[in-house]
């Protein structure tokens, strides 16, 4: 066996992606297959086993462990999905146990943003900073925390749901049912709503008017000087800045890493995030903080692969 | 030596109080002396040494360690007060080292709310719940967290400053310089401001009008049926409820314990806190949560005494 490797499985609603990586996070192989949640959890176990088998055939050797990362509320102790919008048909099923039986090795099951935090801590930052938080910015905003080499999971596996911190108590409606959550203002649907409200507020010459715009359109518009789009990103940055302020008072971390699709547009809002944090007069914990944009786009899957070896 | 005991020193701006307690938190002796911060840190070390000597003369034996709890921002690693409104003259002085030299034993120096968290975890809850947060409600609102038997201190000692979570982004001014912090709405000055605004809003027959009221007056008025006072406590409860929501999404704790002077009025706002938490539709981490009011009024000092043995 040339390389020792762990396998991380990123279980999205559409694709199941298995990544094999070394303890340092070097990706050796990555394969995917449709998830087909309509076929139920047993088919999921079979598809996962098949991916693992294909990887091991290709790489040789045997991965000592597997870690499955899923969007949603994971009961880490019992290895069960408590709530997962993309994989509803697996909710309540003893998924970890079935995977362990099927794959004959230790399996862990975690929230995908928690695995992105492990990727940020162990791979991107090479375990050099002991207290690392992550915000995964996609449709929703996920969170994860690694404190002194330990993943923060909480009493029932739901810790670090930073996207549901209340930022504006009477703010935009969130997919969770509440109002004013961080993700309702800083996830892609928060961004879309912000642009929509700005367009409705005033007669605008923005190139985003009368258009079914994507986050990339909003980024392109801002980069081309569109004032409305720039203001939308500032508002995203302001919401993120308030989230960062709360996280700093709570954890006093070494670093907060922005990951996920919307982190690619970080240059458009990071100044506002920093200005919001810099406005705090209680300086102690802010002077120490590093605000970083993830360099790797695959922190979740590579984090899961490395975690499979660390767990 | 009959009892093994630790000594906790609660260093307030007015009084220095030393408490000797067993590992289980039974208080064996408690002595105090004026702090006199005007005399500088060396006088503080001498006063502390004298209190410890008097305790050991009375109890016999020798306490193996000492823990000093201070309001403010403590550099836990270096053992230095970074910022302490009541003890400004000690800021920057190598206090822990001076105490260790003066007392010839290990000394730790911590934020007082962190020690209240240790008291809640180790004494009040007898180490039975692994993830315990505390909110200390006095003039300000302090915070502390114990996760799996470890005190959360953060990268530079400033973690768990829950009183400075932003609850209402354009809310009341906070003593820290920001607006809308939890303590600006739920500490005693937040309560006073809330009552003041309610009195200004409308012609009121409240018994609090034209009066320099204390928090106890507001509690007495509410208990006597005064509607304005009851509304003020509901607003405190609403701010605390939003704080609790953020803490639950962040830590997914087993319990949050309310301590400090204003926790005595808990019956006047706890229903609102619970209703705010119960309104969350993302139920996972809330079903598990215990919201408790501290039974002991001395969690900070007894927590420091026990921590002196645990550290």
Short summary:
By secondary structure, chain A is an alpha/beta fold.
Task: Outline the structure in words.
- Two copies of one chain form a homodimer.
- Chain A has 311 residues and is α/β, with parallel strands linked by helices.
- Chain A folds into two domains: 125 residues, ATPase, nucleotide binding domain (Nucleotidyltransferase, domain 5), CATH 3.30.420.40; 168 residues, 2-Layer Sandwich (Nucleotidyltransferase, domain 5).
- Chain A is built from ten helices and twelve strands.
- In chain A, a hairpin with a 5-residue loop joins strand 2 and strand 3.
- The longest helix of chain A is centred in the last third of the chain and has 25 residues.
- Chain A starts with 5 loop residues before the first strand and ends with a helix.
- Chains A and B meet through helix 7 of A and helix 7 of B.
List keywords for this structure.
10 helices; homodimer; 311 residues; Nucleotidyltransferase, domain 5; globular; 5-stranded mixed sheet; alpha/beta; 2 domains
- Helix-strand string of chain A: EEEHEEEHEHEEEHHHHEHHEH
Determine the fraction of residues in helical runs of chain A and give it as a percent range: 25-40%
CATH topology of the largest domain in chain A: Nucleotidyltransferase, domain 5
By secondary-structure content and strand pairing, the structural class of chain A works out as alpha/beta
Mean pLDDT rating of chain A: 95
Question: What's the domain count of chain A?
Answer: 2
Radius of gyration of chain A: 20 Å
Which oligomeric state applies? Answer: homodimer
Strand content of chain A: 15-25%
Which CATH first-tier class of the largest domain in chain A would you pick?
Answer: Alpha Beta
Strand order of the largest sheet of chain A: 3-2-1-4-7
Largest sheet report of chain A: 5 strands, mixed
Largest two-chain interface:
A-B, 43 and 43 residues
> What would CATH call the homologous superfamily of the largest domain in chain A?
ATPase, nucleotide binding domain
The global form of chain A is globular
Number of strands of chain A: 12
Report low-confidence residues of chain A grouped into runs of 5 or more.
none
Distance between the termini of chain A: 21 Å
CATH architecture of the largest domain in chain A: 2-Layer Sandwich
